[in-house]
Amino acid sequence: MPDIVIYSTAMCPYCVRAKMLLQRKGMQWDEKRIDLDHGLMSEMLHRSKRRTVPQIFIDDIHVGGYDDMAALEAAGKLDPMLGLMPPGMVGMPGNARRTLDASDDSPT
Length: 108
Ligand SMILES: N[C@@H](CCC(=O)N[C@@H](CS)C(=O)NCC(=O)O)C(=O)O
Hints:
Helix 1 (13-24) links the parallel strand 1 and strand 2 (30-33). The protein has a single domain (4-102), classed as 3-Layer(aba) Sandwich (Glutaredoxin). The protein has helices spanning 13-24, 38-48, 66-74, 78-81, 94-102; strands spanning 4-8, 30-33, 55-58, 61-64. By secondary structure, it is of the alpha+beta class.
């Protein structure tokens, strides 16, 4: 399971969307509420150089906000970051992946 950090606030529809997407993928995360802790707000500004929430980090890599994460998902690049697809299969068309999946050593 990757180490996921989400900087968020209480009233934040984009934070809700980000968490729903990660929840659908079976992920867990560490939520850092910047509205409750000014130190966390400074930390977020320092790490992301952005002021809006959410700011999402996966294994210390700055993904950005919800739109950025959704764009990665649309491009098929989010699952590999979450460890949901072997790196060797990144960029392969779906058909090639299915062929590889089916061609293991088990008897037919
Ligand atoms: N495109 C950004 C939008 C984020 C955004 O607008 N977040 C709101 C809260 S839901 C915010 O931080 N507003 C405060 C501001 O714009 O300074 C994303 O997808 O994360």
